[in-house]
Design a protein that fits this description.
heterodimer, A: about 300 residues, alpha/beta, Rossmann fold, 2 domains, five-stranded parallel β-sheet, four-stranded parallel β-sheet, B: about 425 residues, Urease, subunit C, domain 1, TIM Barrel, eight-stranded mixed β-sheet, eight-stranded parallel β-sheet, 15 helices, 18 strands
């Protein structure tokens, strides 16, 4: 594996190898001294051109637990504000002998574009509505941890599929590991042609939840889409919000995932967030382990 | 005395229906005779056994970028590219900087063309001032200055009342209106066609209906006004069906299709290559099939390149940030020939879509090999196999969606008014 640009571009064996590696990394994070010398002397550049707290901090911690040097670059403090092109900027960063470039951008395709320009591995930390592969890896990791496996499980993804990079990466990851994937949400948020990926679109949240093992709720970008793709937050939460009652339609051992940041009371009831089936904080914990595995596979002895 | 005789070529002249092995004589820049066993002794004989001689191609949709964006292309470089592609006439669009919405700019372009162009250049002027779609341009004065048609190409005239008045007024001036049909509200921030490929790439797409709803509107307005409407770069199947119905109902409508929409589908966006980003976008295989059928049955009158040069540094950015458009003058011929090889139309008809059918749309005196016509001609090797090397393009820009693709069919020589403006044997010296 040269880069991690998306789950679409890797196969089941590569996903499973990353998950197995992440198991070992999780153990490191549980030690009192949470640091191993594996990537000592390596430099990880986190190029985050779109605001992010969780993912950026997660990558930074992942790099540091492997003893790599992590450098964070954001859009506002960068030369992009001086109209330098992204390609030129990335080439300059890579020329400082960095070992891996982690990229988050609001535009789909940016990690791929940069991977064609720099000679070091590129990790996609989320590009527009395209993919967010490390999120999908931590999601399948969390399911494997909670349910013992992914094969044959019914995974339901609910919300704004059209604008969600998490949905795309999750769909590829769960399908490649043998799960059944259902999607549901307002028709205005269902992207054209999504069924060609092999998912089952459902016409209601009830249908989508019936017998599900895993429920992935997506964040609604209320500030951007209210009024355009759905009439109001109130109506959205009444129609597509996950409540305790609706949760009863899923299997008794079902788990609930959310990539965060959550809108309590909008796409997910606040009591669901804090309920027993919720694995939302486990996801965050596992995210560090998965990202350690990715950095190790791309730059360490795994590469 | 005859100066040049081209002997033994297969003469393909769709304007007269000629398709046979004949000789052709050129004298004083004009075609003096076409036939077998021509009389007279020529000064020079070009043996063209196994090759085709066709009228020079006519492109009614070209962006030459002069004035204002000479770093992308200028009249000299753009017409060199045209000549290399076998074109002897191009019609340049009005979205220059400043916009060609005044007789002074139209005259400037015409003068620069006289001074620097390799091929004939006709000028298309803006339909509305500043291409803003609000106030119509001085179409009468623009026509007097030489404008052959009016278009806000690149922009859509979204206000139906403005479009109606533009059609009426242009009809009075006796010039067609070329419509760029993309509903800007339906298109939104889309950069590609809406479908599974856009969904997988996470790119915003617009449906074919973003085009066809405006085609429907403009066909209705053409019917209302009786004016000549020309639909630029048709990309959606539904548009073709509606144009076919309108034509059979007697609406004065013509239409063009680009080589890239005939050759490619939205599948090619998967690698985020910004040279696959254009407006309207590449659509589905079904759309492409309907476009090919529409061109073959005459619903779509001609092929037009929509040659739209952009500097590499402008394209070398995030997909969503890159400008729309691809170049096309140097690759149009083999794409059209491919349709003939696939038996979708005869070779005569295929050449017709690049020549007299295009000229007829704008009422240009071009695209014919009849005796007495200007000797605008292209010598074609229909079997030449070549690969597009971007460094060898004559255009100043490199933004082709066909980089590294193999083509069959090449313009070996191009003459404008009897003057040789392109010879594929010299290309390496010219560069």
């Amino acid at each position: 594996m040269k880069n991690l640009l998306g789950i679409e571009y890797i196969d089941r064996e590569e996903i499973e190898l990353l998950l197995d590696t992440a198991e070992a990394m999780l153990e490191i994070s549980q030690r009192e001294i949470k640091r191993v010398p594996t990537l000592r002397g390596r430099t990880v550049i986190n190029l985050f051109l779109e605001p992010s707290t969780r993912t950026r901090v997660s990558f930074e911690i992942a790099a540091k637990r492997l003893s790599a040097d992590a450098i964070n670059v954001s859009a506002s403090g960068s030369s992009l504000s001086k109209a330098e092109t992204l390609n030129d900027m990335a080439e300059n960063l890579a020329a400082m002998n960095a070992d891996v470039l982690v990229v988050r951008d609001r535009t789909a395709g940016v990690p791929q574009m940069l991977s064609e320009r720099v000679r070091i591995p590129v990790v996609n930390a989320g590009d527009g509505a395209h993919e967010h592969p490390t999120q999908a890896l931590l999601d399948v990791f969390t399911v494997r941890q909670a349910l013992g496996g992914v094969e044959g499980r019914v995974v339901t993804i609910i919300g704004d599929i059209a604008h969600s990079r998490v949905a795309r990466s999750d769909i590829y990851a769960f399908l490649k590991l043998g799960a059944e994937v259902r999607i549901a949400g307002p028709p205005t948020m269902m992207p054209v042609g999504i069924e060609e990926l092999g998912v089952k679109p459902c016409s209601s949240i009830e249908e989508a939840l019936d017998g599900a093992h895993v429920i992935c709720m997506l964040r609604i970008q209320r500030e951007r889409l209210e009024g355009a793709l759905f009439p109001s937050v109130r109506e959205y939460s009444q129609t597509y919000g996950l409540t305790r009652e609706l949760l009863g339609l899923a299997r008794p051992d079902a788990i609930v995932l959310h990539p965060g940041p959550i809108n309590r009371g909008v796409e997910i009831g606040t009591d669901v967030v804090d309920s027993e089936p919720s694995r939302i904080l486990d996801q965050v914990t596992n995210g560090v382990a998965v990202r350690m595995a990715v950095l190790y596979m791309l730059t360490g002895e795994g590469s | 005395m005859t100066r040049l005789r081209i002997a033994g070529a297969r003469i393909i002249d769709p304007s007269s229906g000629i398709d046979e092995r004949l000789d052709i004589d050129i004298e004083d820049g004009r075609i003096s005779a076409v036939g077998a066993n021509l009389a007279g002794i020529p000064e020079e004989v070009l043996e063209a056994e196994g090759l085709w001689l066709t009228p020079g191609f006519v492109d009614i949709h070209t962006h030459l970028r002069e004035p204002g964006e000479e770093y992308k292309e200028d009249i000299a470089s753009g017409t060199r590219a045209a000549a290399a592609g076998g074109f002897t006439t191009v019609c340049c669009m009005a979205n220059t900087d400043p916009v060609n919405d005044s007789p002074a700019i139209t005259e400037f372009i015409a003068r620069r063309a006289r001074d620097t162009a390799s091929v004939n250049v006709h000028v298309i002027a803006a339909a509305t001032q500043g291409l803003r779609g609000e106030i119509m341009s001085e179409m009468s004065s623009l026509a007097a200055a030489g404008a052959v048609a009016f278009s806000d190409d690149g922009n859509t005239i979204m206000d139906a009342a403005v479009m109606r008045r533009v059609l009426e007024y242009a009809g009075g001036v006796g010039r067609p209106v070329i419509a760029h049909c993309e509903d800007l509200n339906l298109k939104g921030s889309a950069v590609v066609h809406e479908g599974a490929h856009a969904t997988c790439c996470g790119l915003m797409g617009s449906p074919g209906e973003a085009e066809s709803v405006l085609v429907a509107r403009d066909l209705e307005l053409a019917r209302l006004t009786g004016a000549h409407l020309h639909i630029a770069h048709v990309s959606a199947a539904r548009s073709v069906e509606m144009i076919r119905e309108a034509k059979s109902a007697g609406v004065r409508v013509t239409a063009e299709v680009t080589p890239h929409h005939l050759a490619q589908t939205d599948e090619v966006i998967r690698g985020y290559d910004t040279n696959t980003k254009m407006a309207p976008p590449l659509r589905t295989a079904r759309d492409r099939e309907v476009l090919r059928m529409g061109l073959a049955d005459g619903t779509i009158d001609c092929v037009a390149t929509d040659h739209a040069p952009h500097a590499s540094y402008e394209k070398d950015v995030e997909f969503s940030a890159a400008p729309f458009g691809v170049i096309g003058l140097e690759t149009a011929l083999p794409i059209v020939l491919e349709l003939a090889r696939d038996h979708r139309m005869s070779e005569l008809d295929a050449i017709g879509r690049l020549t007299h059918r295009a000229a007829r749309v704008l009422g240009l005196r071009a695209g014919t090999l009849e005796a007495g016509a200007a000797a605008d001609m292209t010598l074609v090797d229909p079997e030449a196999i070549w690969k597009l090397d971007p460094r060898k393009l004559r255009s100043r820009s490199r933004n082709s969606s066909f980089v590294d693709r193999e083509f069959r069919g090449l313009a070996l020589r191009t003459w404008v008014g009897g003057r040789l403006v392109h010879n594929s044997d010299d290309v390496d010296e010219q560069r």
